[in-house]
Amino acid sequence: MEISGIERAAILLMSLGEQDAAEVLKHIGPKEVHKVSAAMASLKNVSKEQVNAVLSDFVGTVNNETAIGVGSHDYLKSVLVKALGEDKAGNVIDRVMMGDNAGGLEQLKWMDPRAILEVIKLEHPQIISVVLSYLDSEQAAEVLALLPEKVRADVLLRIATLDRLQPSALHELNQVIEKQFSGNSHLKSSTVGGIKTAANILNLMDASVEEVIMDQVNEFDPELGEKIQDLMFVFDDLASVDDRGIQALLREISSETLVLALKGADEEIKTKVFNNMSKRAAEMLRDDLEAKGPVRLSEVEGAQKEILAIARRLAESGDIVLGGGGGEEFV
Predict the structure, then answer these.
(1) Are residues 200 and 258 in the same domain?
(2) pLDDT at 274
(3) Do 147 and 80 fall into the same domain?
């Protein structure tokens, strides 16, 4: 059975023992902690061969990278990519390299979206856009959905046009979050936001909310709206992924999630999936689809978003190539 990256991380941590595992968990972000913890809790019947394979892979990584220094950025990135995938590892490394300058922002990452809203709802849209740019896309999407409708498009436009955050702006941002700012006067500018960040956040929002925001964005700045739309990758765009990529994606998806997602998909993507399964597996999937009956649109969209998140993770790690642009429904 194929072991996912998060499951490999869970097996590794379980193998380390309580004390060492706790030390590792101190250095990863809240969403990663949650996912790894959930994977650790669900581990069952892990074979000796699987444990040995995970440990051997990790030892091999360590042996290959120690020449550049255990504390180096490259070593840290290599190990985290192995455990969490390219996109999540990049987020963790960015926060680590920022050090104390992002203390307030790190606190937000552990908070519920509604609690974050209480912190930032009275701030200027520019401050809100910077805060959302630092959050994971999933978390940012939840906070954006909670903002008043008239504010959402303004905030998204500001996220899309962000580039680098200057020291004075970073200082102001931390003042919003922390009562006493603890940074220093020699801060370097930090890359935040951008069109891709805006597209990633929209990809993770409910289709109805996304449509309203994009209508407002297009009304204000059609050219920018088109650029955002071009970077959005929606479920039906998976039809443009090559067969090898689809096969890699299917190995990461549960059958229940796949059935739900395909209930709202067009025939092209269904055919793409069936053609990349064994004959028996394809027949079983067809039977499951027929037996499933009507399902809520929100359930279908949720399953499709889950698959898209996996697809983006695989694309970031180079396992698949996502092609085509966005613009369709059923995100």
Answers:
(1) no
(2) 92
(3) no
Q: How many separate domains does the chain show?
A: 3
Q: Which domain holds residue 282?
A: 235-316
Beta-carbon contacts of residue 71 (< 8 Å; ≥ 6 apart): none
The tally of CA atoms less than 13 A away on the side-chain side of residue 89 is 21
* CA pair distance 319, 183, nearest whole angstrom: 39
Give the integer Cα–Cα distance in Å for 212 and 53: 48
* 326 occurs within a structural domain: no
Final residue in a domain of this structure, among 215, 231, 247: 231
Question: What's the per-residue H, E or C state across 281-292?
Answer: HHHHHHHHHHHH
Q: Each residue of 169-205: pLDDT tens digit? A: 666 666 666 643 333 333 344 455 678 778 778 877 7
Q: Among 171-180, 200-209, 229-238, 259-268, whose mean pLDDT is lowest?
A: 171-180
